[in-house]
Amino acid sequence: MLDVFSNHPEVLTWERREVIQGEVENAQGIWMPVLLFGLESLENQKLEKIKFKSSEIPLESKLLLEQNTRGFFPDNLKSIQLRFGENRVKVESSFGGWVHDPLHAPAQMEQLIYAYASLDVLDTHLNPRQRRFIFKLKGENPDKERIAQLTSELENDLLAHGAEFVRVQIPEPGEHIHQPIIDGVAFLQIGFGGILLVLGITLFALILLTWLVHQIPQIGIVKSLGGKSEEIFGSYGLLILLLAGLGLLIGFPCGILTASGFNGFVAMIQNFEKVETSFPITYYLGIAFMAIAPTVLVGLIPIYQVTLNPVRQALSSTFERAPKGIVKLISQSGLSSSLKYSFGNNFRNGYRTYLLVVLMSMGFSLYFTGTILSDSFKGDLNAYFSGTPYQITVQLRGNLDSVPGFFNEIPEIKSYVPWKQLGISYQVDDRIRQASLKIFPKNFQLNESRFLVGEENRNCYDCIFVHPQLLLEEFKNTKAGDLITLYLPEGEVKELRFGGVMREVFPGNKDLLYWFTDKKISDFNLIDVELKDPVQVQQALKTLEASFVKNEFDFSKLRDSETGFVTLENHFQPTYLIVQGMGIFTLILSFFGTLLVVTLTLTERAGEIGIIKALGGSSWKISNLLGLEFLFLSILSVGFSIPVSQVFSKALCATYGEMIRGFALQRAVHLPKLTLLVIALLSILSFLVVYYSRIKIKKTSNELINSGF
Q1: Cβ-contact 93, 20 below 8 angstroms
Q2: If pLDDT is split at 50, 70 and 90, which confidence band does 320 have?
Q3: What is the DSSP letter of 162?
Q4: pTM (predicted TM-score)
Q5: Nearest CA to 125 among 43, 37, 2?
Q6: For 413, which DSSP code?
Q7: What is the DSSP string of 418-468?
Q8: Measured in whole angstroms, how far is the alpha carbon of residue 482 from the centre of its chain?
Q9: CB count, 10 Å around CB of 418?
């Protein structure tokens, strides 16, 4: 039969691989699930080579562990305790060292151990009727259609040579198994890079305004001595260009180091090795232009406005006045004098006000987006796990016709329901593909939130539901009610109607079909268990396992909802932590920008503040007026940021959810939490403004009046 691979003209090379599910004892004495991969030879691998990090020769008689499992085992690990097989037979194996396998996420994230051994070591534990192979085709980057055609030929050849059943899995050509996750992280990184560029340009403009206010009288003097506006604008423009270039020289190395550190972090949490390859020079030139051009443009706007001012205005202007229409409107508003003064001051320099509102709005928006995304992830998972009563799933090693009687005697169990999963083929658009079919009985209590499309067909017992990713790829031309042909094991052919779309948080193999039947499932291989309240899941797992062993009940493994929740949250947590971290960083930038504007405001209004102090105003009252002024701007920024964060979070929930799981996350907005965040952030910002301004205006009224002219 192996000659089928060797003699096929399109097969470059092949190798046998086997997988055994079992359990391994960690440093705390707890048995954890383990996937044990068997290779023909650890030292002479043909395909998908694992890298040895620390190992002893010879390896063929020892067990190796993926390097990210280190935290589960003692530092002086010499031997490993395993148990697998029908009777949970304990096996002790010598530890051979650590390896790196980038095809698997870190063990801490998956709550799953990956181990590797030679097939000779595993031979006595393998199913003699089962063989798994991986093979590589000739040619560079063959498309998926070509791969499907060739594997169909191989499948027919294997069946002709006596194979009882053949199942083929085709990975996405040219994509890593974790490519959707990395695409999602890259999407966030590029998006936030653009946002940070906008924030940096805004901060630059604010700093420029702070510096320029001291230059206005000098510009007036130069113009009075015969200087032309064009010459003054050109000299300041050249200075702006030099400053932007200097910033680029400093920022580029810092950006490269930051990107390298960030990519190293992503590589660590996804179990990759960081790629150190540099980008082409044209890529860096493009980034430089994107950074320099808008920075210079934004910086030249206030300079251009100042150079156009008449000489007298440049020499005598210490601060701007609000437009007359705004002043009239505020005066008729009925507000107290202090509120009128604070509110009206926001209109005394429109350009500066706009920049500050943009800066604060972006900071608030990103922080709110990260919070909403975090709540959406957790809320989506909570809805999935809390919406179904089954906390534990028993996966059998074989098929059963009836549930053993001792199930009814386990005190922790409230109810249970058997169901079935098997590998099948299906036909859609004249193509035959492989999939996993989940068959549920009529009395199965399914979480209704798992229905995305086709809820009205919930009680359709001759309907097939599909997982969203499968729908997007294979069922895009299929309409509700269209017939789908299923090729079941042992030659059975069945036609069922297309009923709708399902969601799944444990997609595993992305090709998933669901069938709810009103017929008895006589040969099931899974049992979902509902626990009595208030039984704890972990305690129930120990009781169930002890009862299964006592009654010699054969099962492959136990899955529980708590571990599933933790595993999924570990996968999603880096994403929303990145968003929240970026939000906090932008908030810090916006707070820094606010203090810059406060400095500029105090410089412009030094004489005005001195007059107020001379008329009896205290530093405390004046700083409170400034606090009210910036509180108005902050409230305006929050008003803009909330709808913006809604748009951002909706886009991220849709884009990132579809990248990772094939469907958009259910966006969750907790208004009480969001309200408390707004109050807390506004309080912090107001305190900073009041405290900072009070320090700045402790001078006497005479000093303040003189410093303004």
Answers
A1: no
A2: very low
A3: T
A4: 0.62
A5: 37
A6: E
A7: EEEEEEEEEEETTEEEEEEEEEEETT----GGGEEE-GGGTT-TTEEEE-H
A8: 36
A9: 24
